[in-house]
Amino acid sequence: MPAKLILNPYAARWGAGQRQAAAETALRAAGVDFETVLSDAPGHCTQLAVEAARQGFDPIIAGGGDGTISEIVNGILAAKPDKPPRLGILPLGTANDTAVNLKLPEDLEAAATVIAGGRTRQIDLCEVNGRYFINNAGLGLEPYVTTIQQRIKAVKGIARYLLATLIAIGHNPQWRMRLEWDGGSHEGPCTLVSVSNSPLTGGVFYTVPHADPFDGKLSFVYGYLPSRLKILATLPKTMKPGPGNYVEHPAVHEVHASWLRVEVQPGSPAHADGELFADSIQKLDYRIHPARLPILLGA
User: Could you report the per-residue pLDDT of 104-124, keeping only the tens digit for each?
Assistant: First the structure.
């Protein structure tokens, strides 16, 4: 049975569709036997992944960005929860956070070589309200930024995320949250809750800098910065992968647990792997599934 390439032509604002021929050429040059299918609407990648997994395709290759990968992961697990096929990644998105975090090459020829190599590792998956995510999820300011960047048309790439972040900080939305996890709890005003399997999101933000997709832990950050000036002053520190990151601020806390429950007032937007799944939600249940999915990685 050949591999199945599920390609989302809309990824990177239709950039992935323009690179379809290059992606297929790279796979052939690497010696990968595959069939291609294109998605045509939000959520379609999940349906296509369900069909591919049930038909026995292995590996299933995600051609797109983080949202595409997330949809395909959910389809794979829906179809084959006990013995999922391997996941391969051809990074065709805007930020390609998942590929960067996993140290996968963004060059298509090199990424195809990784897939052909067949080296597999079991990666942790996170879940929120029944939905799997492979990289990052959040509520509060983080998905509020997502609601803004999805409306921005004139600016492309990483600059769109940065512009949306500045606009969101200018709005300074406020929430009160109750967090409970195995080992602790918190109640009070919160600017954001970021739950991650890996450190990087949005191309430049290390929102949960010590997250590790292979440690079996659910890693999250919560904090409260009351004013626009304090948020702006802290923003550059979210872009530091090591010492000096914003989690060193006394009002920001990084936690490693196995589950997290959040109640939020008023309702907050919520996203998983960059895709909004709620415009205003008040209760969220996050958990970790250690070593849940086989993924093709390089040496």
Answer: 999 999 999 999 999 999 999
